[in-house]
């Protein structure tokens, strides 16, 4: 546990990706293989179920410290995390327990069959043998709330650097179904249970935001124009009768889209298609909020599959029968893609529409109307362009429509982390609903450091209530909120959710009486 605690401390002490990768590699070089397996399991979300009621943990801590309940609650409100609060208030340990991470995990799992009295004895003995950082980790593992600020991509990059394996091979191996007690570290890293060549994706070709006048692009007929969709960019791979779906974020998402997997499985041949995964019903592209309901679920019910059907709008063909097509011009790749889909006619996969237009002025009008079909704007691709790895300026451009905006009032604030931990930087905004205010969005970006300090002073002077680390403030500060899309949602009291909300500007010229009305906002939903 000591080495694991040092790793967690190192990870939480920096926001630099390379520093996190170095910390992970340092841990892997020191930890036993059994601990490495549990490290990967915990960092990929394979946490054991909670076997100890967190209310009991709070009671036991108060029993040891003899603190009054009100003081504990004040401490909890200030810290904002139960496990950390308990770790801070407990007296220093009188013993030292040396046990591996895997040993701790096995003990925690075995608590499932223990009585409450046996659980209490185990927890109290553990607290008395661990230092502050070790206690904090122990509490989080015990309470089933272990989370750390390391993305799957950072984890895979660290394991790639440590093992020498390719990142796609490791992702294929780690993101599958496995249990820590049934697999060794060597088996995970060497990917013995998978064929990495079958699943390997290509680096995605990406576009730059359009930064020049259309006339500077040359002749209109030199460009392929498609709609830009707000879904999940993905590569659909079929090799040797195996199907894999990779997101642009380098995550293997095959199991989340069974209808796509089934459609591809029924197609002949081997290929790699690049496209956009979208929720489409009755030939209409649904809001991203609908697609989001299907993500990261362990099971997909028949009702959900029916209510939120999925389609792929295919953009490109990267590989056909083992032949890498990326050096060919997109005009040739698209012709081959059209032939493939025409011959196979798969359900749930269709070719992305190629927009016909006469001149740049007409294209500008098409872009302005793109929100009518839930599109974000247009993609402009030079017809002679190959499929680059990453971005190359000049060949592919994304030309998005201007964001939507509303005026909303700040009603909740929470302090940030890192260098902004002393200031309120996380905000919740509300709009009018008859004579009430209802929350509609959270936003964390858009203000200058000077404005953040000014808002923090206002929060300190005008806080009404405390809910843990969150402060309710007088509804006086009005902000213009920009966002890319809007849809119905149960996550906010308003019943709607904004896509990529951010603060556009502080409207010091407006009062709370001038913020937007909910019913008017709902009219923006397509």
UniProtKB/TrEMBL annotation:
One of its GO terms (molecular function) is ligase activity. Residues 303-433 form the ATP-dependent DNA ligase family profile domain. Pfam families: DNA_ligase_A_C, DNA_ligase_A_M, DNA_ligase_A_N. InterPro entries: ATP-dep_DNA_ligase, ATP_dep_DNA_lig_pp_1105_fam, DNA_ligase_ATP-dep_C, DNA_ligase_ATP-dep_cent, DNA_ligase_ATP-dep_CS, DNA_ligase_ATP-dep_N, DNA_ligase_N_sf, NA-bd_OB-fold. Its EC number is 6.5.1.1. Keywords: ATP-binding, Cell cycle, Cell division, DNA damage, DNA recombination, DNA repair, DNA replication, Ligase, Magnesium, Metal-binding, Nucleotide-binding. SUPFAM superfamilies: ATP-dependent DNA ligase DNA-binding domain, DNA ligase/mRNA capping enzyme, catalytic domain, Nucleic acid-binding proteins. The keyword Repressor does not apply. It catalyses: ATP + (deoxyribonucleotide)n-3'-hydroxyl + 5'-phospho-(deoxyribonucleotide)m = (deoxyribonucleotide)n+m + AMP + diphosphate. This is DNA ligase (ATP). It comes from Chryseobacterium taihuense.
């Amino acid at each position: 546990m000591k080495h694991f605690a040092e790793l967690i401390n190192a990870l939480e002490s920096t926001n630099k990706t390379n520093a996190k990768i170095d910390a992970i590699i340092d841990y892997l070089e020191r930890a036993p293989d059994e601990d490495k397996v549990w490290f990967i399991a915990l960092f990929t979300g394979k946490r054991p179920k909670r076997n100890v009621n967190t209310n009991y943990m709070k009671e036991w801590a108060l029993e040891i410290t003899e603190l009054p309940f009100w003081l504990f609650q004040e401490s909890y409100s200030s810290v904002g995390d139960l496990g950390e609060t308990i770790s801070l208030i407990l007296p220093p340990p009188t013993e030292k327990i040396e046990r591996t991470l895997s040993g701790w995990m096995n003990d925690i799992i075995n608590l499932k069959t223990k009585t409450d009295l046996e659980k209490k004895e185990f927890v109290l003995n553990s607290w008395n043998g661990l230092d502050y950082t070790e206690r904090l980790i122990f509490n989080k593992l015990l309470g089933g709330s272990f989370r750390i600020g390391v993305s799957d991509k950072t984890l895979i990059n660290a394991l790639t650097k440590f093992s020498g394996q390719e990142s796609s091979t490791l992702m294929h191996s780690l993101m599958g179904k496995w249990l820590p007690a049934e697999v060794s570290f060597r088996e995970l890293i060497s990917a013995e249970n998978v064929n990495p060549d079958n699943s390997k994706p290509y680096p995605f070709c990406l576009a730059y935001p359009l930064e020049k006048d259309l006339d500077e692009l040359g002749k209109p007929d030199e460009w392929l124009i498609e709609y830009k969709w707000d879904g999940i960019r993905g590569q659909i791979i079929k090799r040797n009768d195996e199907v894999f779906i990779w997101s642009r974020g380098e995550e293997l998402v095959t199991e989340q889209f069974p209808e796509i997997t089934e459609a591809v499985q029924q197609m002949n041949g081997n290929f790699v298609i690049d496209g956009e995964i979208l929720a489409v019903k009755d030939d209409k592209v649904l809001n991203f909020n609908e697609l989001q309901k299907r993500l990261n679920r362990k099971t997909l019910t028949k009702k959900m599959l029916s209510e939120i059907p999925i389609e792929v709008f295919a953009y490109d063909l990267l590989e056909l029968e083992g032949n890498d097509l990326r050096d060919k011009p997109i005009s040739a790749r698209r012709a081959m893609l059209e032939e493939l889909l025409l011959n196979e006619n798969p359900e749930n996969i269709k070719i992305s529409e190629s927009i016909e237009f006469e001149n740049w002025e007409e294209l500008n009008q098409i872009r302005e109307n793109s929100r009518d079909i839930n599109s974000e704007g247009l993609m402009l691709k030079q017809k002679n362009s190959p499929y680059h790895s990453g971005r190359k300026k000049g060949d592919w451009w994304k030309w998005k429509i201007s964001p939507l905006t509303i005026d909303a009032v700040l009603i909740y604030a929470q302090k940030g982390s890192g260098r902004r931990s002393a200031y309120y930087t996380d905000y919740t905004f509300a709009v009018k609903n008859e004579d009430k205010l209802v929350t509609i969005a959270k936003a964390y970006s858009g203000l200058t450091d000077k404005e953040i300090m000014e808002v923090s002073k206002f929060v300190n002077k005008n806080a009404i209530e405390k809910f843990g680390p969150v402060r309710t403030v007088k509804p006086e500060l009005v902000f213009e909120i920009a966002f890319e899309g809007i849809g119905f949602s149960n996550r906010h009291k308003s019943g709607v959710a904004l896509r990529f909300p951010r603060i556009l500007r502080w409207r010091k010229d407006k009062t709370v009486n001038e913020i937007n009305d909910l019913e008017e906002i709902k009219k923006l939903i397509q």
